[in-house]
Amino acid sequence: MLEFTAIDFETANSSSASACAVGLARVRGGRVVDRAGWLIRPPAGHDRFFELNTGIHGIAAEHVVHAKGWADQLPDLAAFVGADVLVAHNAGFDMRVLRSACEATGSAWEPYRYLCSVQVARKTYALDSYRLPLAAAAAGFTDLRHHDAVSDALACAHIVIDAARRARAGDVAQLAAALGLRLSQLPAAAPAAA
To answer: Which residues contact 54 (CB under 8 A, 6 or more apart)?
Structure first.
């Protein structure tokens, strides 16, 4: 059964720790069955909003004033993901955000396994560019509101669902193997000593 969670982060500035929004899409049996997303107050020291970033995703400091901080929202993120493999478009970026925000707040993170949908798209489609809008369109997902974290997570999920169907892969590990890719894994970490 094709099961995974697609994830997308938006950041307040050039710091990988500056997560200000997350989008999640849960896939079961090759279908999106749930989605979630919320704003995040970036960790102290990483909470300045750059005009460039706000111009991309539309999130500004005033939007996150009452949002949970990184450490307070992390249990919600972990509860949604469970033991799933994570999938993200440019997964290195999203995994760096997760790890950096945890490091900035002294929070532990799970040693999630993950797959990059950019790599999946490159092995599945012949496109001029593998940016999310073009890869999502190739997968048949045309409702993308790019840089809305939930919409981006949904697009990513649809890319992997379509690629798995084309490759006749029953799960994420089979898909990775069929495409000559590998599942990566975040190293386990413990919270910083108080």
So the answer is: 12, 60
